Amino acid sequence: MNMETKESGKPLESAVRQLLIERQQLLVTFCRAAGIAPDRAGEDEKTMLLDLCQLLMDYAALWQFEIHDPLAGEELRACEASRILQGEQTMLMQAAQVMLDFNDLVDAALTQGRLTDSDSYLSSLGEVLAERFEAEDRVITAL
Questions:
Q1: Could you give the CA distance from residue 143 to residue 137 in angstroms, rounded to a whole number?
Q2: Which architecture, in CATH terms, is 12-142?
């Protein structure tokens, strides 16, 4: 896994290490956020949800720009990981949309001062993240 990418100048190996670190932070924050009672969310809980949203966006961006884009580029298109990525593309894009939607939902809810039904959204997000992580792992394993 010593492939250099033209776009970032960073090896994919380094990007994957960073992705796994961010994934761990994301999972810890997600689990903490999942324990928030919507009707009892204080400032600490709201901050945690905002932190979760920031981690979701950072994670999605890291995957997209440091791993996906180099693998989808001309230079690496023939490698096995690139072929697996193509097969997982639809699910990864759907998962990214769910992550963006969750971010928008939390932003709107906090702006309007209401944080109801976060449990169902967190549950759906958790399922999508699990599927996404499995798809990413299939790509990473092929590197």
A1: 10
A2: Up-down Bundle (1.20)
The span from the CA of 119 to the CA of 2, in Å, is 41
CB atoms within 10 A of CB 58: 13
Structure tokens belonging to residue 72: 């989808």
Mean pLDDT of 76-81: 84
CA angle at residue 116 from 115 to 122, to 5 degrees? 90
* DSSP 8-state assignment for residue 63: I
pLDDT at residue 43 above 80? no
Output DSSP code: residue 105: H
CB 26 within 8 A of CB 103: no
Mean pLDDT across the chain: 86
Three-state DSSP class for 128? helix
Q: Where are the alpha helices (DSSP H) in the chain?
A: 12-34, 43-62, 69-72, 80-111, 118-142
- Can you give the residue ranges of every domain in the chain? 12-142
The pLDDT > 90 percentage for the chain reads 61
Which class for 105: exposed (0-12), middle (13-18), buried (19 or more C-beta within 10 A)? middle
